[in-house]
Amino acid sequence: MTVAVDARWVAIVAGFLIGLLWHLAPAQAANPNKLWEIVHGKCVPDEQQHGDPWPCAKVDLTRGAGGGFAILKDINGATQYLLIPTRRIYGIESPALLTLSALNYFAEAWENRSLVAWALLHPMPRDTLSLAINSDVGRTQNQLHIHIDCVRADVRQALLSQRSAIGPRWSPLNVLLVGHRYRAMRITGETLAGQNPFKLLARGVPGARADMGRHTLVVVGMLFAGDVPGFILLDDRADPAHGDRSSGEDLQDHTCALGH
């Protein structure tokens, strides 16, 4: 009973936020700092002063504003949320993401995936949910944000067919995803605690640390043989001359067909 009430409340709030953010949509498209202005100028002060993260769905300041994050309903789709650091971090290219003390933003994003299920009013299997961050040429906002949403049905099917061939080191995936050749690796575990995708990319793909900004990262929940929980990590490097802007968000479905 409690879950149903929570789900309705979240759906109502999400609908209100969608309306609010659609009102802001033209400004956001023209202003690459809009996400930062919303989080830094509205969500964090409201949480600090009133204990209310509005217009965000959540603000976590457990580690202070310099080490926290916000969750904001995106203007696109009924189920898409964004995790946004409460400190100024422009994107995947930031060296701050690779420091020893760096917060594992992907782990925090996965822990908040339940917002997608709440928006749909029912649970979602882990292999239907995904996290994505776009490259510096594939994004519209200059504040790091991780997209939390459903994975495309065709991408999920392709990954299910390839999961036994995906190993613990980065290697080219044997199938194209949305027309692009991704690298893939598997990690096991119920959560991403201790497994930071930014650092796994920087350490595991030759040359990636030097041009992190040109890379995209996608994390898809998975169950491996024996019902072992884990994730498939996906990486692509931008090649604008050949139409590849390295936007891993393209692997997500903001209509969430898998949830209907």
Brief summary of the model shown:
With 260 residues, the chain is of the alpha+beta class.
Strand order of the largest sheet: 1-2-3-5-4-8-9-7-6
CATH homologous superfamily classification: HIT family -  CDH-like
Unreliable stretches: 1-12, 14-19, 21-28
What CATH first level would be assigned? Alpha Beta
Structural class, from secondary structure content? Answer: alpha+beta
Characterize the overall form.
globular
Count of distinct strands: 9
List the helices and strands and how they pair.
Elements: H1 2-30, H2 34-50, E1 58-60, E2 69-73, E3 81-85, H3 105-111, H4 114-120, E4 129-133, E5 146-150, H5 153-162, E6 171-172, E7 183-188, H6 197-204, E8 215-224, E9 228-237
Antiparallel strand pairs: 1-2, 2-3, 3-5, 4-5, 4-8, 6-7, 7-9, 8-9
Task: Write structural notes for this entry.
Helix content is 30%, strand content 20%. By secondary structure, the chain is an alpha+beta fold. Helix 1 (2-30) packs across helix 4 (114-120). The protein is globular.
List keywords for this structure.
260 residues, alpha+beta, HIT family, subunit A, 9-stranded antiparallel beta sheet, 9 strands
